[in-house]
């Protein structure tokens, strides 16, 4: 047999009929989960070496071993099905692990009768286990005799010849329902890939009659798995159980940005009004300006005169350059704690490293294509796969691929990655990509409109984050609008007005000017304390997750930090932050806030916030499980460590500690006692204030008892709504109904304030309701004296407070408690305290 470094011809290790894997009576082998290969139904009783190589793994029970061929291919030879159960009976190993063997050498003798009597089948397998680096070419399809050609294993050109692979044949599998909204599209697929990469086991997903390795983003997306579909996960390797557990968790975990995305892609609406294109709002806002048409790169025909090596080198260099740029974007996103941007570009980076895509491109170059054309074609082929799935979310992900197509093409063509925008332009394009958007926003575009796209696309998420009005699905007519034409984009209503009158222009300018002026006026007063017209002081603080946020909050006029969600220091990392790192992080927040006070909430993980390094018991209802302060039940040392870090902050007088998810007084008393002990250990005379979050109905109902022992109460309206209304706060279908202005919530808020007042304690609100200006008068009326809001809204909420009369708020808000629904409360609020 002629072998070279790249290709090895394997000889039959057994004699007997040859079967394809699909005919093997075992689900895991048949599905290809273990890798590609062939099977033989043996008629002889000795397994021979199919090639020269090294025995890199031998099952203790003698029923399986793995040989590494000289080209690096690793081949598992597995005798019979379920033969591990024989515990070695009937097998005689003739070689040891680590032995160098030659083609045809006898490796295992086995007793055909004994195996046939006790096991499901004698059918034996020859499986390539590191298939990501090799291709298999079957050479036999009927009956073979030992030593006859069976199959060829060819190294792929980009494959490293020797990669350390987990050769263990332990395996685990589970079925799981996909809970990611819209199915396994790019970001969830990237999460799955990242999770799988944390383990040495090889993991695959199986769906319908297809399967894909978890390390291929494209492979995973190509399965076309939809929300609610059931898939099977298989893991093979030493850490298969842990890998399986992590993958099952990742497959059923909701993605962060999905909480805020509109529930579904709305179909394009017909253009019925003359001079107006109708699309779908992806980010609201009203703007006018000249239209700037952004087009993609069109390549001339390929001349075909290239050196493959040179083109491969060009592609490699371009890919590396783009990866470097994306890593920079990622780093910036991380520094700014912009989780959405981070997720999107992490998925892009994963796509750029995707083996399926890279192999298609390098394969085309080896066949004579130019790097540019090979890259374009490889992307187009993958886009076609995604589009053919016929699911909107997957089709939208094709846009991420087109983004990478453009970026790499621009790099290959040597064009500078930028374009000049006229001032105040509204940009139109077939479909903009996330990197276009970052560039356009930096160049002060005022609006975006696209022929295609959906409201759940990455671009839409980024546009909302940047406050850039954006309309998608306008149809191809938008591409025919002449360059420079003045248009009005009324994004909230999904309208692009192509020929606005002068009067309309003037009106848009007027609305925008009025909004801008109001914002400026509010901003000018942002650093002044907020008092109602009858002199009641309301503290307007900020919700933050980092010292950078705190800095922004301080600049925006925050009276303090009303909620520091410390769990953000603990998530997205492989190890826990130690006491010193925690202390530094909290101190940085304190330092960023001048002389203002900072409320630091102890870690609130569990529920939907899981930590990689902190395996918590699997729970049927995690949101009702060991989350928040309850975690101290199972991991008291974590809370102790955090409390110690907090007690070392200076000045301690500016630091208040807040406990999440408290549901009874004993929880508070226990932590208070522990805090006293730690203070004594650290020889502290001063003790920080200790507050309780009111985010469980039980806590609101027990507010009076809690207030007796707490220094303050802070209402978490997000969870309080979820638990009071029995509606998942992340459920897209219920999003419009999880409204904290529900009368039931208002009653709990009223009860909390009354309970606190009996002990002279103050009450704040740190849930999202505090940032809703429609709710401000009701909250003040019910007795809340601190509102902790998102930093950009500080000026607006302070302004709202200044225009209210607290006595009137008190009087009118009581009547809200008797209304029948959140909708009725909203209407009444708008009636009593209109939002201009
Ligand atoms: C809340 O539940 O309202 C709250 C502020 O906490 P989180 O949103 O972090 O759960
Ligand atoms: Mg909460």
The percentage helix is 25-40%
Output mean pLDDT: 85
User: What's the shape?
Assistant: globular
Main sheet summary: 8 strands, antiparallel
> Which kinds of small molecule does this entry bind, naming each only once?
phosphoenolpyruvate, magnesium ion
Q: Residue ranges: pLDDT <50 for 5 or more in a row?
A: 159-163, 256-269
Total beta strands: 35
Strand content: 15-25%
Structural class: alpha/beta
User: How large, in whole angstroms, is the Cα Rg?
Assistant: 32 Å
Largest sheet, spatial ordering of strands: 9-5-6-7-11-3-2-13
Q: How far apart are the first and last residues' alpha carbons, in Å?
A: 84 Å
Count of helical regions:
27
Keywords: Cytoplasm, Kinase, Magnesium, Metal-binding, Phosphotransferase system, Sugar transport, Transferase, Transport
Cofactor: Mg(2+)
Domain HPr: 171-258
EC number: 2.7.3.9
Overview of the structural elements:
- There is one protein chain.
- This protein is an alpha/beta fold and about 850 residues long.
- Helix content is about 35%, strand content about 20%.
- The chain contains 27 helices and 35 strands.
- It has an 8-stranded antiparallel beta sheet, with no helix packed on it. It has an 8-stranded mixed beta sheet with strand order 19-26-25-21-22-23-24-20. It has an 8-stranded parallel barrel with strand order 28-29-30-31-32-33-34-35, surrounded by 6 helices.
- Helix 3 (about 185-195) packs antiparallel against helix 5 (about 240-250) and helix 11 (about 435-440) runs parallel beside helix 12.
- The longest helix is centred in the middle third of the chain and has 28 residues, at about 310-335.
- The protein is globular and about 100 Å long.
- Magnesium ion binds near residues 695, 716, 718 and 719.
- It is an enzyme of class 2 (transferase).
- Belongs to the PEP-utilizing enzyme family.
- Its main location: cytoplasm.
- GO terms for molecular function: phosphoenolpyruvate-protein phosphotransferase activity.
- It catalyses: L-histidyl-[protein] + phosphoenolpyruvate = N(pros)-phospho-L-histidyl-[protein] + pyruvate.
